[in-house]
Each structure stands twice: as C-alpha cells, then as structure tokens.
Amino acid sequence: MSYSEQDIKTLEVKSKQIRKLIVQMISKAGSGHPGGSLSATDLVTALYFKVMRINPNDPQWPQRDRFHMSKGHCCPLWYAVLAEAGFFPKEKLMTLRQLGSTLQGHPDRRTPGVEAASGSLGQGLSLSIGMSLAGKIDKLDYRVYCLMGDGETQEGNIWEAAMAASHYKVDNLCAILDYNGFQIDGKIQDIMGLEPLTDKWRAFGWHVIEINGHDMKQILNAYEEAKTVKSKPSIIIAHTIKGKGVSFMENMVDFHGRAPTKEETDIALGELE
Amino acid sequence: MAELLYQRDVYGKTLAELGRENKNIVVLDADLSGSTRTNIFAKEFPDRFFNMGVAEQNLMTVASGIASCGKTVFVSTFAIFATGRAWDQVRNTISYNNFDVKIVATHAGLTVGPDGASHQALEDIALMRVIPNMNIVVPCDGPQTAEAIKAAAKEKGPYYVRLGRPKFLTIENKGEFKLGKAQVLTQGNDVAIISCGYMVAEALCAAKNLLSKGIKARVINVHTIKPIDKEVILDAAMTTKGIVVCEEHSVTGGLASSIDEVIAENYPTKILRLGVKNRYGQSGEPAELLKEYNLTAGGIEDTVIAAIS
User: Which CATH superfamily hosts domain A5-271?
Assistant: First the structure.
C-alpha cells in the first residue's frame, strides 16, 4: 500500500468529518462516550478509507477484511465511519441509542458492517483471534483488525487472548491499542497502571509498533508494517489524546461518558470546522 | 446385560463422524480434551481443532469469532467452567450474537464424584436457561448423546448440551429423538415422574418398583430443557394424580423450575421436587453421593408415595 500527500490530506479531512458526526450523534442522543471515540478516530478512519479491503454493498463478502471494536462504548466512531463508507444511510446516525434503532448504545449485529456485538470489555481480542483462525482454516487472505481501549486491557480475558494469538501465530491479526491514558475513574496510571506496556506485549510474543495515533503517516506506515510480519500477531500501541479535536474535551476524564450540552456542541462543531 | 456407555466417548466419536461429513465443523477445548473426548476429533482433524489451554473466557470468545465466519463450532470443557467461569462471554459473544456455537459440557452434576464440590456443576442449567437464544439439551444415555449432538449440529444457533462423567445405562425403546419433544418412556396415570440425564434410569427403576406396589407411573424424559415441551408436561399435570421432578442439579433454576413455570402458568398442580436443595456437592463415589442427596430410585419411590397419598 503506497500513499501520496493527497491521500494523507484526504484522510485528515475525513477524520474531521467523522469527529463532527461523533459530536452531533452523542449530542442528539443525550448520552454516549465522546472521549474514546475522538481519540481513536484517526486510527479507524485510516482503516476504512485506505487500508481495509471492504465492500459496503456486500457486508458479508467472505474475502473482506474484518474490523472489530472491542471497546464497544466508542461505537459512535464506528457507526460514523460505517455510514461515511456507505454501509447504511447517514441519516440513521441521528437515531443512535433510540428505541428500535439499528444503532444501539453498544454495538450489535443489527448494524450493517458490525461483525459481532461488543460492550462487555476484554472480549474482542479473543473474538478477533477466532476470525483470524477461521481465515487460516479457509485459506483466505483477509486481515483482522481489533481496536482495544487501554483501560480494557486490565481485563484478564485480554491476556488469555494475548497468549493464544502468539501461540497460534495469527499473523493476519493486527490489534490496535488506543492509549489515551484515561479510564472512567481517572488516569490509567492512578487506577491500574499498564506500564511497561510495550514490554508486556513483546513478552507475550507480539510484534509491537508504537506510534502517535494522530499522525496519519505514522498510522498508515504502522498498518503496512504489520502486514509484513510473519508468524506472530502485531499490535499498534497508539499514543492518543482522549477527546482529540475538541479543546475542552481533550484529556478531560469527564467526557469519557457524557454528552456535550447544546452550547458545548456548538463550540465543539465550531472547533472542528 | 444392559449396556453401559460413557456419554463422553459417544460424543467424541460422534464429533469425528460429523467432522468427516462436514468440513465446516471446528472444535475447541480448554485443556480437558482427554476427559471431554474431543481428542478423538483432534487426532483426526488437527487443522480444525484448537486447544485454548486453561483459559475458558478465551475459549468461548474465540469460538464466537470462528462462528462469526460461518462455521459450526463445538466447544467443550467441564460444565462448571463452561457455564460459570465464562458466563459473560457465553451471554455476550455467543448467545447475543446468536452464533452457531455448541457448548458441550461434560462432568455435570454430583456424579463427578471424588473431585468434590468445586467440580460438581449443580447450577449450569440455571445459568444457561436465563440466556435468550440458548437451547439446552440433557441426553439420558450414550445413544441419546449421539442423537442430540447430531441434531444440534443440524440446527443453527447456540446450544448447551450437558453430559456426565460416569457410565450411563442405555435405556431401550425410547422412541424417536426430536429436539424439543419430551419422551414418554412408560405409561401410567397415577403419577408422572419427570427427569433428565442420569436420573432417567433411576426414574425407570423407581417406576418398576412402584408397579409391583400397584402404582402406575408415567416416566417422562425431558431431554430438551429449552425450549421445553409444554404439551407433554401439561398432559401429565391434567391426567395424573401428581408430579415428581427429579434432577441431578439444584432445584432452583433447572428442570424442576422449568416444569414449575409451565404448570403454574397453565394448570396449577402440586409438584414434588427431588434435586439438590441449597447445598454444594462433596467428595464421594457417585452412588454414595446420589444416596446422600436422595437422588435414587428409592428416594423417587418415597416421594411418589408422598405425592399421591
């Protein structure tokens, strides 16, 4: 995968559009998780608009690359990207969290493009290993991408998965860790520290790539590097800013799980112009 | 001489048979493949078998990921770990997604024996029964295990199949096996004895002894606990003088509760329940344990007499 300066610009513009949609959706819904949606926006935008092999008209296409959002509370990001990519009409986005909506408060399979439900943290990496193993069994060359939150890697299930992925050498799996440094109760380092994080993943047998998760070139290079790794899974540890793009949400734990007020929404959308 | 079979042996052989017919079947275990007998499948189809080690949460979620790609996945470990250790994973990644994962758990109930309380699942049916989409089958012997596994493999969606550790007495003339349809094994209008799994043989033994005392018991094998066969249960409520339910499980949340719910909602009748009542299991030989918890033909007979007198 090669990319031009124009590609980078296009992706950056797309990221901004996605961020606006995230703010609008959560504002309309009156609840949701803006902080972690905004921190992972660049990482997921790059996947859907440059890296992944997808067909929005045929979400079940067997050869498709798979994406799973293990940190399910950040689904406004996923939904915005899926709608932008053409999996379903963008008007649907404003039904987020409403009764009967195809866009649930945490992801499930009623949304076109969502492979499996998530929301109970720590389970998505194992699920993604399953997708990787199925690809190996069927000798299909698709890749599997799994987005995890930093707080969620405190779950034991993640480390069971970390062990299994390297044991089964699922080199078609690329995990992405959105390391924004915050969880609901405060700073990760104060609640339950993860460091030394890269050492942990290396010790579990993973190829570790550490990047700035808001630098589009570094993001694309990391996905490209992961594709070249053989016989072991890869993880991109992306240093990000919680609430990225909206000044008063950045690094503010308060916006982990609360919707902006009408006034805050206007300011946020202004900043994202 | 009546035939005695390990349900687990039958399960392993049936899986291998299914594996030959259907390349879409994948099997996972969590370091108990020798006990659950998935090792029979593993030996024949190493490319479609994955041992996840002692990590049941990962076991269940990897299974759901494989199933998300259109495969039928059989997952095995002991009942206590399959349903307890990984309940959230079963609920949120298998059943909520309605994926084609068959959880075939062995070593259920008291008859695990000397390993004791930590390994004797007496809550597993209860834990699975409250999960939407989940189907539950408890075969009563070896041959019925093969029938249940084959039937579950044909159906889409999540299943919990409960197997035991000891040898099971093969029950003759059970009639056709159909998921969701209970089997009436003996005719009688004095009392209905409803059971599943290992207790069916005890129920039949009790019925034979009762007949010599002039009591005609209708023995019903409710092999499918979810969805439950309301018709056969209500018929028993309406046409017999009492109902006795017998199960190798807590009386809370399992077969007895399922029967209670059907009857209370449709045709309130007195039901006497034989099962484990707010207790853990303990070490001992299976026969000793069944006696200690009053889950024997003798216990059933006494309860029947109490029910209809």
Answer: Thiamin diphosphate (ThDP)-binding fold, Pyr/PP domains (3.40.50.970)
